[in-house]
Amino acid sequence: MSTWVNILITGGLLPRGMLTRNLLAAFILAPPVLNAQGQTTQLTAAQAIARIQQAIPQPPPADTVDTIKAGDPSTIVTGIVTCFTDNMDVLRRAVALHANLIVAHEPTFYNHRDESTLFANDPVYKEKLAYMHDHHLVVWRFHDQWHLRHPEPMTEAFTAALGWQKYQHADDPLFFTLPPTTVNALAEDLQQKLNARIVRVVGDPNLRVTGVAYRPGASGEAAQIKALERDDVQVLVAGESSEWEAVMYTQDAQQQHRSKALILVGHSNSETDGMDTAATWLRALFPTLPVQYINSGEPYWLPGHPPQP
Length: 309
Hints:
By secondary structure, this protein is of the alpha/beta class. The chain is built from 11 helices and 10 strands. The protein has 2 domains: 3-149 and 272-293, Udp-n-acetylmuramoylalanyl-d-glutamate--2,6- Diaminopimelate Ligase, Chain: A, domain 1 (3-Layer(aba) Sandwich); 153-264, NIF3 (NGG1p interacting factor 3)-like (Udp-n-acetylmuramoylalanyl-d-glutamate--2,6- Diaminopimelate Ligase, Chain: A, domain 1).
């Protein structure tokens, strides 16, 4: 059995029970279309996904969420779109671009493993699924293995967006030593450079800051609090946090007169640049296919300041 077929099975893209003779004949053993030089000019979604997975030395974990969420793996890829989340706007823009392989970082169907039990009869779920089916889209999640790549792409893109490369610790890229600033000035700088509508801050706005830790996305209580515990960290910049976890920990630390603050830029704002990086990376893997990044958009807005159409 070919290497990429094994990747499909072990990566969860194809359950072993699906490897019937007919399915193999349909898209695994089917001869590729070749150009005059004998090079492949067409790829199925399954073949494209396998190429992506093979390009990262670190394999996905055994229980990976990096699986196909919708669509037929045998679909011939006409173009690739990367995004943070594949909301309806992203799907429509992908169709307009004639791209049918959607590489999304986060879930498609509102929970970590895209389980459909809760949504089986839900009209929002059914309309989204029907749209993907009607437009022959294939949606694949690229989360676990993308985070395993070195350098870690979300941190790399975040650091570049802020221009913090020269402040990054050589031994741990998640920590930075900045020129002296305040919590409020840092939050304003993050909001401007990340083009964020909403940034939430816990702590004294006038607290002097040099040591900053970064935790992208929903990194969890343990990672966030361990970063805040460090003596050389005054501020943690993170995507999101439950209000009874790192948020309340920071409140208590401040109320105990400790020099700690928390800046939440939003999950999407903390990671979306990393999926722009993914599009750049994929263009080298697929030089004959159009690859585009689509910004999923920040979901929140402030009263009195609605998003512009």
